[in-house]
Description:
This protein is an alpha/beta fold and 380 residues long. Among the domains are: 7-28 and 40-67 and 179-257, Ribulose 1,5 Bisphosphate Carboxylase/Oxygenase; 68-177, 3-Layer(aba) Sandwich (Rossmann fold), CATH 3.40.50. The chain has twelve helices and ten strands. Strand 9 (227-234) and strand 10 form a beta hairpin. It is elongated and about 140 Å long.
Amino acid sequence: MADKPEELALDRVQVKKAVQALLAFLKTKSTPDSLLLDESQHLSLLFTLWKIPKQAQTIRIPLPHGIRTDTDEVCLFTRDEPNMTPDQTQRFYKKLLAERGVKNVTEVIPYKMLKTEYKPFEAKRRLLGNFDMFLSDDRVRRLLSSHIGKHFYERKKEPLSVNLRSKKLAVDIQRTIQGTTISISKKGCCCMARVAHSGMAADEIAENIDSAVSTIVTKLRVKGPLIKIIHLKSQSSVALPIYTSNMNHLTLLEETKKQARAAMDAKKTASKQKSTEKNTGAEVEEEIPQLVPIVPPSKKAKLEKQTKKGLEKAPNPTGGKKAPNPTGGKKAPNPTGGKKAPNPTGGKKAPNPTGGKKAPNPTGGKKAMRRKSKRTKKAA
């Protein structure tokens, strides 16, 4: 659970000194053009947490003094009313806001108009640059993320949901517009919230800082110590520290880490002992199997059985009958018509290729000598 607000106590004297120093620095850096146009810079609180949160979170922070000027442009996204065109829906909600006393909303855009007229990328970028803040009807808030684009979230101008059916609509919209939000991501331990502007008095800025810190501490979903350091800064200045937490809990963290390590070591040793006991018990309980020699069957027994029984004759496939004669008992006709075939040599003998001489013996008569020696050995 989060710590109580009383545990994080800001030094208001130190906060006021930091605010006065920051305002004096911004006055020295201001130009005649900025003074003529009454341009003011945003003042923000930079929170550094002790650890990275496990879940992303967005916290709304109500402030006692408004941080937006009358010149800020606010746009409202509404749902499409049944049986009405987008222009009729736009006129309907403008009339409703005027009747309820809402004066801070400068433009109303129905959901159907957003899908059709602001579908191109350039139109979305123009819409993002024309307005300082965006509100949304809570009935269509979940549908806007796929139509407005990622640049609204990168510039931290995502629409804030508002209940347009509320009886205190003017108060709710005024509180939402003059308040602020802080987005806590699970990718880092730093987050920033806008709490004032340079045109406000020092006491008003200090009160906004105090209420913002107390709200964040109560709503932040982080266990253990929460905030490590809080800085105050503007868009073009360095960060001034206004709060630093105590380091007493670091000894407790070290002790808990040591205890956790000792518990892990004890678990590892216990598991090793169990595994060794199981292995030794398995070795004792296992019996060595006896090897029985395999005796092949004797061949003499098979031969004796065959001689006693005798060899059986194979069955005759014709069943004891003679095979039919394909010629029907007649002789086959002579293809030469009873005459002798002509002699290709004309009755003469073929010439002897060796010229009447015997061919030379390739073995040189050695085979015969070997045969005679073998016979004499056998006779002996």
